[in-house]
Amino acid sequence: MGGGGVGSAAVNPGAGWTWGYDAYAPERERLVEALCTLGNGRFATRGSAPECAAGTTHYPGTYLAGCYDRRTSLVDGRAVENEDLVNLPNWTLLRYRRLPADEPAGEWLTPDSDELRHSTVRLDLRRGTLHRGLYFQDARGRGLRVGHTRLVHMGDPGLAAQRTTFHAYGWSGEIEVESLLDGDVANTGVERYHHLESRHLSGHRTVFAPGGVAGLSCRTGDPGHLIALAVRTDTRPARPARTTGTSTGTGQLYRLPVARGRTVRVTKTLALRTTPAHTPGDPLARAVEAAGEAPSFPALMAAHEAAWQRLWEEGELRVPGEPGRVLRLHLFHLLQTLSPHTADLDVGVPARGLHGEAYRGHVFWDELFVLPYLDLHFPDVAEALLRYRHRRLPAAREAARRAGRRGAMYPWQSGGSGAEETQEVHLNPRSGRWLPDHSRLQRHVGSAVAYNVWKYARSTGDQAFLYGEGAEILLEVARFWADSAERDPDLGRYRLRGVVGPDEYHDAYPHAAVPGVDDNAYTNVTAAWVLARGLDLLRELPAARRAELRERLALDEGETARWDDVSRRLHVPFHRGVISQFEGFGELAELDWEAYRARYGDIRRLDRILEAEGDTVNRYQASKQADTLMLGYLFRPDELAALFARLGHRLDDGTWRATVDYYLRRTSHGSTLSSLVHGWVLARLKGAGAWRYCEEALLSDVADVQGGTTGEGVHLGAMAGTIDLVERGITGLEAGPDGLRVAPVSLRQLPRFAFTLCCGGHRGVRLRVLPGRLGVRVPAGPGAPLPLVLPGDRRFTVPPGGERWFPL
Ligand code: BGC
């Protein structure tokens, strides 16, 4: 993606709405499947070819938000428990072959057939549909054009459909088509996990019902979910020549006459119904009924398109050129993973979307990169995601208690239950060795949850949530930090020891017997921030609620006095004029970056390279991703300076710039979040290299920069983060109680863009950034004029129904 032409392109609403591939390339197929996934927040289906079951090239997958299953596997001689996002039965499968008159049946045709002449894949982002086109021709020149159109319904989150058309060229006869529901599936999408138990579904039951409906139900083990899928197959003739019920699936076989110039259609309409096990009612019966009653394909399509149109209006971000097209793809996948339907569910932010099985579908701290966008566009969804965390507050409290701490210790990786799900050992594919995994020591995840609570309430003005569930989360995380802080009499400061920062490369000091590092600057500064906000919140709460919370949480004045003390005296290490990533980071060895780049080319996973060499990245000043620099991502310079001042340090512009420069030269960007944060921080500093990192963040998934990982699921944090980078990073936008603050920096490659957001009680406030100018339009309607604060504390208001332009 070249920045070149982008600047001059106009905002063109019609352009940039498709994503596609013009040839079939087996080695790229998993990437295509991930990037062409369709979903509606409730469930998603990878963009796999309908002709193919799982194998080395193809990996169909359907995932239901929040549907995890816990299994025990034997790994490297020890029993390991894992909670996995379950791959559901494949509803898309459709086999077909030619039955020319007076000849034996041909081969089942697939993209891998020798007869394939041409293949295209098109994702229509505006409509939320996936189109696959194939053209087959046999040795005698008999052609068959096949087109599949798939949707996962954005209006009715229990429905999906796939219409296939066949068109014969140069022959007449029949096509044999088998519409299948395949429950013989497992979680085998990630090669590294092949040692783990992969079968999650059992108790399969199949039924056939009138009207071309076939149904399949099965269940997961722990916790038990009953899952039922029913597919209605519509074609002519409507009656199948044969139906097959196996122990794990169904097949409906049709013989369809084809003649020159005639198009034959087969439509599969899916109804998905699930319930927790042991709840009354039979989801299979409900699925069968729903599939039978589902509207026709054109009617489904119309309602689906209308639902997408509403989403695009609410989520709108218009950026010209190729960056705009990639951003739209990012937004598309974000909205398919976390849609307005998510607001009705109890689910978190899966780091890899509902697009694949990497990280087993777990929830990390990545919501820190996702919620700010949702706060501004889909506040109900943001609130639901925070409520998911609130429902798991008891689990976080229990985790803290077991660790001998008070308050709430949110897990680094989690799924359904809210328990810690981080693996204890991980495989280095380079060395083939299983290594202890200490990444669970990333306690900073709790601060991310608390930060999101605060930010959500500031952006949306939802005091009820902040004073209710939000306060409970924030105060319990604050309490955890205060209780974790150890006083060091020699330093005269508090310390947080034995943690891992966002840079997961450093999980111990070289030669140390115990894991973890001390005083990770990011962890300590964000902990101080949480403590300070906890105290602010206690002051701000209505008296009755404050009294109630103090009593319920047994939070006395003595404890909050300690919070205040800790928030002012947490240790923040420095070395040679820069903030140290953690105590002792500056004393680690310098890595010869050039030598490693020359030897290995891609050194993003430097940890694996060094371990395979018998060395360890713990010995070096080398970070996987933005760690200390995350502070510049979360806080404005004045906020950061104030935080440091509260901690007794002066953080001037020079120190911050030196710190940015120092880590830029010592980071391998082994996470897609890294380039995003570097791009953001450099853009805010008006740094020359900003675009390089922004561009890399934009390319994370579409160019699969982490070397083959996108096929295992998209990187949702980076996807959402890039949208937010334009909307908040470049504009410096903050929505708060005093209206909208905007302080744009200019990025030559993104000179103009526009988006709408919710602010000050108005939905659909539209911002337009043009070179040297900012336009703000507030939609007509009730409500107060929108206050706007521009750099230099210039204050304005924009009335409902008004639009104003400001020089920048
Ligand atoms: C990153 C984490 C991130 C996780 C899930 C890891 O590679 O280091 O920061 O939370 O991926 O996206």
UniProtKB/TrEMBL annotation:
InterPro entries: 6-hairpin_glycosidase_sf (IPR008928), 6hp_glycosidase-like_sf (IPR012341), Gal_mutarotase_sf_dom (IPR011013), GH65_N (IPR037018), Glyco_hydro_65_M (IPR005195), Glyco_hydro_65_N (IPR005196), Malt_Pase/Glycosyl_Hdrlase (IPR017045). Pfam families: Glyco_hydro_65m, Glyco_hydro_65N. Residues 21-275 form the Glycoside hydrolase family 65 N-terminal domain. Keywords: Glycosyltransferase, Hydrolase, Transferase. Residues 328-723 form the Glycoside hydrolase family 65 central catalytic domain. GO terms for molecular function: hydrolase activity. PANTHER family: GLYCOSYL HYDROLASE-RELATED, PROTEIN-GLUCOSYLGALACTOSYLHYDROXYLYSINE GLUCOSIDASE. Belongs to the glycosyl hydrolase 65 family. This is Family 65 glycosyl hydrolase.
